C-alpha cells in the first residue's frame, strides 16, 4: 500500500481545534471512512493513527478519498448518492463492529436524523436495516461454508448474540439458522 503523509504536531493541533486558518494549507483524510476534510471541519476528531495529510484535494481524491458532506472541502455540495454509497462501503467493511446509528452518522460526519433521512431517500431502507442485511448475508455464508457453531457465527457476523442472530435470520429468511444449515447439507448429500 502506498504510504501517505502523516500529520505533524502543528497540523494535528489544527485538526483537533477545528482551526479555519489552516484550511488554506492542507486537507486531512481518514483511512477508516475514506473521507477527506478541511482542518476546520466540526466532525468528531478521528484517531490520529488513521489520519493522512494532503496538500491539495485532487491528490486525496486520486488516492481514493471522498469529500466530506459537512465541510465540503472542494467548495461544492457533495451529492447524496455519492455520500450514501460511501456510507454503504463503510458498513460493508465495518459490519463486525458494534455500531449504533449515532456512531455511523458520526463517522459520516453528520447528525443521525439527517443521515437516516438521506439514507432512506436514496436506498429505500433504514441504515440499521441495511447493516442487518449485510450481517445476515455474512452469517448465511458462514452457515453454508463453514462448520462453525451458531454463536461464533453470530458474533463474527456482527450480531450481539446467537439469540439476536437467530431471531433476525428467522424474520428475514423464514427459517432458523440450523434449519438453513440442515437444508444446505441435505442438498449437498443428495448431490453426492
Ligand atoms: Zn468534514
Automatic annotation (TrEMBL):
Gene3D superfamilies listed in its UniProt record: DNA Methylphosphotriester Repair Domain, Homeodomain-like
Pfam families registered for this protein in UniProt: Ada_Zn_binding, HTH_18
InterPro entries with a match to the protein in the record: Ada-like_dom_sf, Ada_DNA_repair_Zn-bd, Homeodomain-like_sf, HTH_AraC, Me-P-triester_DNA_alkyl-Trfase, Tscrpt_reg_AraC-type_HTH
Cell inner membrane in keyword set: no
Residues annotated as domain HTH araC/xylS-type: 85-183
Entry keyword set: Activator, DNA-binding, Methyltransferase, Transcription, Transcription regulation, Transferase
Transmembrane segments: none
SMART domains documented for this protein: HTH_ARAC (SM00342)
GO BP: DNA repair; methylation
Top-level taxonomic group: Bacteria
Family annotation (PROSITE patterns): HTH_ARAC_FAMILY_2
One GO MF term attached to the UniProt entry: DNA-binding transcription factor activity
Cofactor: Zn(2+)
Alphabetical list of SUPFAM superfamilies matching this protein: Ada DNA repair protein, N-terminal domain (N-Ada 10), Homeodomain-like
Entry protein name: AraC family transcriptional regulator, regulatory protein of adaptative response / methylphosphotriester-DNA alkyltransferase methyltransferase
Organism from which the protein derives: Pediococcus ethanolidurans
